[in-house]
Amino acid sequence: MSTETEVAPAPAPAKEPRGSGLPNWAVQGLVSLSAIVLALLVGAILIIVGDDQVQATVKYFGAAPMDTVSAALSAVGEAYKALAVGAFGSWTAISESLTQATPLICGGLAVSLAFRTGLFNIGAQGQLIMGAILAAYVGFAWHLPPVLHLIVAIVAGLIGGALWGGVVGLLKARTGAHEVIVTIMLNYVAIYLLAWLLTTSTFRRPGRTDPISPIVDANAQYPQIGGTRLHIGFFLALLAAVFVWWLLNRSTIGFELRAVGANADASRTAGMSVGRAYVIAMVVAGALAGLAGTQQVLGTDLPLTDGVAASVGFDAITVALLGRGTPLGTVLAGLLFGALNAGGLQMQLVTQTPLTLTTVLQAVIVLFVAAPALVRSIFRFLPKERGAGAVLAKGWNG
Amino acid sequence: MHLELSGLTKSFGSLVANDHIDLVIEPGEIHCLLGENGAGKSTLMNMLYGLLQPDSGEIVIDGAKVKITSPSDAIKHGIGMVHQHFMLVPVFTVAENIMLGRENTRAGGVLDRKKAHALVTELSDRYGFEVDPEALVEDIPVGVQQRVEIIKALVNDASVLILDEPTAVLTPAEIDELIGVMRQLKENGTSIVFITHKLKEVKAIADKITVIRRGKVVGQAEPSASEEELAELMVGRAVDLVVDKEPAAPKDAVLRVEGLTVIDERGFTAVDDVDLEVRAGEILAVAGVQGNGQTELAEALLGLTPIAAGKISLDGQDLTGRSTRHRLDAGIGYVPEDRWHDGFVDSFSVAENLVLDLFRKPPFGNGLALRTDEIEKNAQARVEEFDIRTQGIDLPVSSLSGGNQQKVVLARELSRPLRLLVASQPTRGVDVGSIEFLHGRIVEERDRGTAVLIVSTELDEIAALADRIAVMYRGKVVGVVPSDTPRDELGLMMAGASKTQAHHEAIEHPTTLGTI
């Protein structure tokens, strides 16, 4: 008769077999940490294989195997040391890590919020670009007093992202168009729209033939901190995380978003409008990505170029995955990725280890996080968590 | 075949689902395994069928100890299983379904359909199954589909057949046929393990009854035992099988449904020109075999499924075409038939689920902000009022037992003033103890003057709750009859007979269960 499987005696609550008293967040943290350790191990192998010294010594491996071993160890040691120094070694290094983390956090929040509503937002890149375009335009074409100019430029960026995200939500709500397809396509539209705009006289810097806009007014720039590249956009990103936390956990809208994300049928039966939730989630997510766009163009880049988004919108997906769709997790993951980016530059400079290694590290981390069973099979001590991977899987059921 | 389970134990984490279970199944006996949902019957059978491995204990077949690690092992040892949900391919014929997994080929890799056809015909004739090997599975009634499943097991030379809740999807007449089939099998020497929580069936068919409660064998009983005795064994305390209720004192009509027609996604007419009326202070129960339009009827009332024609009004207010939220606000409470599907959000906490359709309004929602303190207070009150057994209101509702989950859903719906309560399968997958409680609350709500519409496929439940019974068959209401209508009559109506037809037929051909 029953629709659920009978496994547990009825009156006792059917607790998941977890085998540990650890709360879920602690388990997730452990899995994430293990994933990072594993990624560093994989990275070490790549460093060893690619190192010239190691390759030289391996030729006489039979005669003096210890040479190869010590060469390998020193290659890994130096590379990771450079990575750490580049990320945390000095105030400048830390500020650079935070600078790199800033748009990743906002972009990550854009993806996380959509995840929690059951949407897989691949479109942070496009939303970020639209935000950057509007913010840059207000930044260099308008001339307003200090503070006000920055605020107006930021709002323009939020609107740009919100519109680009809102279209996705609307299409999903009205026609059932799958958000993954729509966001991917809108990414292309945004990328080429930006490329085209930079050829127009409105956007192209006078006297230049390459795709670059005028520099945004000083009044519209995020104030920098202590002579580094770090700007107050970073604190805005933290505020945004607090806002998303409040929205999801302490507001009626967030209750609805989470309910729709976890069980759209139950939400509909409870009188919620699933379509409305999709639109709201995508508008807010788009605005968050737009905020990341303002941080790029008003904080670090200053002129608008066709590379303004770099790969932030896509890295944001991995940040959100690593952060398990929670605001705090996303901030932590954003900081980690920012540090890896900043440290990677230093590592390339000092040890000639290619910057792409950090990309590999990031990818491997997410790979392991997305496959907790794999990590657990390597680290046997890790307890099981409930609903692992649910965040990732949810977005695909349309 | 002599089958003996001794000391079988299986635990999941800290839970012992089966605790040293001993069971002996003699050749050619029908052995009923009786227990509430969650008592551990399925766990036990899954171990026997190789789907789960016991932590300790052993399975002995004809004196030899065996280890069953997979269903194919079980089949090799002559154990067959018919699952609650059939494992058939709807677009294949009966013979093709029988072939599946053991396709015989002739020269050149051509499927040997003739052989499968002959096999089905032979078994069907031997046991009097009346199954057409060339019929498509999707075209044949559920009862026949079940026989196809049984044939599948018999083809594998099963000498012990496990039937997991086989009657859940059948009409009373089909249940009667199934009982006939089981007797046939028994005469041919097949032993049957019959899993159920329905007392009437157990008494009608069992040779021996083993009762399981909380993972332990709590006793053996003879089929001659009374229903009350069996229920007490099953639940562990005396159970009131009859709901205490005064005769209804119905007042004005609250819900009026006129000419309601629903076309489902596949283009079939699920609800066909239905007229219904539910009055304040009465319980109208909609009876019918699953899949005859009751689900769609309930969903249409809530605006969850679009309607093709008809009118729905509540207290004279036209609700046709209004949103679900509008209807909830108008005073409809709704318990959906499958709580996992749309009754609650399983990852949400008990407290959150208790305000799933109330969170917007004060005191829980204050404009944009959510009042978590009020939500907690409400949860504490509801948990106490409905005796919801949970280790904490902040635990996910998925950690609760089925009965307690259902209490959460009902508690939520009853925690606001209602004009109409629509409850589909209000006690599905719920233990007997909770059924008693849930039924009591529903009657209480009726006595408060709420109109109540119950949809149920369980005649026991219909009999316990209804003031009037509407029987649905293929989307139509074939008749509305008083609550004291005999079971056989209801059963025939559920198979499409009109009121008068059913009345005469039932007297001429009484069924086994109808006469108990």
Quick description:
The complex is a heterodimer of chains A (398) and B (516). Chain A has 398 residues and is mostly helical. Chain A has helices spanning 24-50, 52-58, 65-88, 91-116, 124-141, 148-175, 179-197, 233-250, 252-262, 264-269, 274-301, 312-322, 327-351, 356-370, 372-378, 390-394, and strands at residues 212-215, 303-305.
Note the main attributes of this structure:
heterodimer, A: 398 residues, 2 domains, globular, disordered N terminus, B: 516 residues, alpha/beta, Rossmann fold, 3 domains, 6-stranded mixed β-sheet, 18 helices, 34% helix, 26% strand
3D structure, described in words:
The complex is a heterodimer of chains A (398) and B (516). Helix content of chain A is 69%, strand content 2%. With 398 residues, chain A is mainly alpha-helical. Chain A has 2 domains: 22-89 and 336-384, no CATH class; 101-322, no CATH class. With 516 residues, chain B is of the alpha/beta class. Chain B is 34% helix and 26% strand. Chain B is built from 18 helices and 24 strands. In chain B, the strands form 6 sheets. Chain B has a 6-stranded mixed β-sheet with strand order 6-9-10-3-11-12, sandwiched between helices. Chain B has a 6-stranded mixed β-sheet with strand order 18-21-22-15-23-24, sandwiched between helices. In chain B, strand 19 and strand 20 (369-370) form a beta hairpin. The two termini of chain B are 31 Å apart. Classes of the chains: A mainly alpha (398), B alpha/beta (516). The interface between A and B is large, with 43 and 66 residues.
